[in-house]
């Protein structure tokens, strides 16, 4: 099997300038480079650049896939827009790290497995990139999932406590599900962790927002408008929304402060959860199979009832099919004979059916292929 590696970088806040693109071109002559992206696939050789350094200098997101089971994902965000002390708690191991680079922090996530199939990297980053905006808006569910990965990979001590569980962990959107898939985080572990996650309505109250804007000093509103028109900052809206959310009253968050669980506790509960889930799934499967069996039996009963009184015409049809000497017609004849057998058994005339079948078989004793079909259908 040939080697396969996929590298994809994406710039969100600041497009690449021509000088940047020239530097990147020196790293790879084959890469697809645009003002917002750098993509390259390797079936031999390797990439000469350092992805972490490139993200720190040029890009906001990075994704890597190799056909030997390696997954690698990075996101860069402005440090002033996240709670640095809190987000550090979500990145305690090899599978989830945080790098502080000047005015930014970079989240680095890695997953490696020996149980893998061939896969390609294209499409993964587009399904994950919106997680960056979620983090900037205070949604740290992806970071908590990364912490769970570290726990799953046994990169922490058993008695280490989890970080605060973010709201709505039981309701993962498509990007979060993609993240869990890409990082290979066990769904049972996520389900157990979500038991301590509250449900929170993150919708903004338009009236409260409008009131807050109206109460801003006029000189500040003028400055904001100037920035929007003349020199917009990429995260101006995010900065303003964070300021607004700090002023509005929030729900009682006492439920969010549930007793933190240890790594050992989560892993052991996830194991029990998996056993119970499989038991329920097996039970449900058995019920479904029993239901289908009952429906099939009922349909069979109704079908046989519809044949009652037509036995002679069916025997005649069987004879016509056999005379054709066509394999497909033989199959059809045997199917009708099975129907007749079941019908005669149902009406207590099993002996009559056997006598008629013997007569039929003797009449066509030279048709070996037909007789073989009777044997396989257990009619002889």
Structure, described:
With about 375 residues, the protein is α+β, with helices and mostly antiparallel strands. The chain folds into three domains: about 5-200 and about 250-280, no CATH class; about 205-245, no CATH class; about 310-380. It is about 50% helix and about 10% strand. The protein is built from 16 helices and seven strands. It has helices at about 20-25, 50-55, 85-90, 125-130, 130-135, 140-150, 175-185, 185-195, 205-215, 220-230, 235-245, 265-305, 310-325, 325-345, 350-365, 370-375; strands at about 5-10, 30-35, 35-40, 60-65, 70-80, 95-100, 105-110. The protein is elongated and about 105 Å long. The relative contact order is 0.07. The model is unreliable at about 250-255 (pLDDT under 50).
Structural class computed from helices and strand pairing: alpha+beta
Strand order of the largest sheet: 2-3-1-4-5-7-6
Number of domains: 3
Distance between the ends: 52 Å
**Cα shape:** elongated
Radius of gyration: 34 Å
DSSP E strands, number: 7
Number of helices: 16
Topology, pairings included?
Blueprint: E1 5-10, H1 18-27, E2 32-34, E3 37-42, H2 51-57, E4 61-66, E5 70-78, H3 84-89, E6 96-101, E7 104-112, H4 124-128, H5 130-136, H6 141-152, H7 174-183, H8 187-193, H9 206-214, H10 218-229, H11 236-247, H12 263-307, H13 311-323, H14 327-346, H15 350-363, H16 368-376
Antiparallel strand pairs: 1-3, 1-4, 2-3, 4-5, 5-7, 6-7
Helix pairs in contact: 6-7, 8-12, 13-14, 14-15, 14-16
